[in-house]
Design goal:
By secondary structure, the protein is an alpha/beta fold. The protein is built from 9 helices and 7 strands; from the N terminus they run ααααβαβαβαβββαβα. The N and C termini lie far apart (46 Å).
Length: 230
């Protein structure tokens, strides 16, 4: 799908702050010819809300758009089919694991939620910092002990203003999953380290399965609130 072309079309239809009957028909015809995947449709939905926020003035209006987007997201998830249109598997050493994660990070427009036991791979850390600098909200949950290991990049994240929370418990926060714009999930045994990329036998999958997205998003929010500073 030519996403740049569709973004141009959406911007044009926004110029007079209304989607006319002719514009609706034209947009529908373009989408019909392209037969977009569910991932493409989710991208365009997020893009439409981003364009609306750019156009609106005032924090209160933006918050209303945020509310509307979250409501529509819940409604779409409730009606989404159970099958996933994206299902990828990566195994290391051997597959291009770190670069796939970098591409996922670089493609995000709104949010990254990463729940990772340990992060020491500077390729991924630098990409996370770049994502944060361009205005994407990045939240990281990690293990409190691993956060202070030699080579850990957690302190760099905190200094840059990225939101970080740890478990602060004797047991380990051992998850390794991440969500990108709420539309793609990465999960598996893979820590974001050079050892996982080059030496260990690890795996992760990337999927847009709505049931898994919903479950992991809820798990992240539960941990985020559980580890809130008191």
């Amino acid at each position: 799908m030519q996403r740049d072309e569709l973004e141009k079309i959406l911007r044009q239809t926004l110029e007079d702050h209304r989607l006319s009957r002719t514009e609706k028909r034209a947009l529908g015809e373009v989408l019909g010819d392209l037969t977009p995947s569910r991932s493409d449709v989710n991208f365009l939905r997020n893009l439409a809300f981003d364009l609306a926020r750019e156009e609106l003035q005032g924090q209160e209006n933006r918050l209303i758009v945020d509310w509307l987007e979250e409501v529509i997201k819940v409604l779409l998830q409730a009606e989404a089919p159970s099958s996933a249109s994206i299902a990828e598997a990566y195994f290391t050493p051997g597959d291009d694991g770190p670069h796939r994660i970098q591409r996922l990070l670089q493609s995000t427009r709104r949010s990254v939620e990463a729940c990772i036991y340990t992060i020491t791979d500077d390729r991924l850390s630098n990409t996370l910092l770049d994502v944060h600098r361009r205005g994407v909200r990045v939240r990281i949950i990690t293990d409190d002990e691993k956060a202070y290991d030699l080579g850990s990049d957690i302190e760099r994240f905190e200094q840059a203003g990225i939101e970080v929370r740890t478990d602060r418990a004797p047991a380990h926060m051992h998850h390794k999953f991440a969500l990108f714009d709420g539309r793609l999930l990465l999960t598996g045994s893979y820590n974001w380290t050079r050892g996982a990329a080059d030496d260990n036998h690890e795996n992760f999958v990337v999927t847009d399965d709505p049931h898994l997205l919903r479950a992991y998003a809820q798990a992240f929010e539960d941990l985020w609130h559980q580890f809130e500073e008191r």
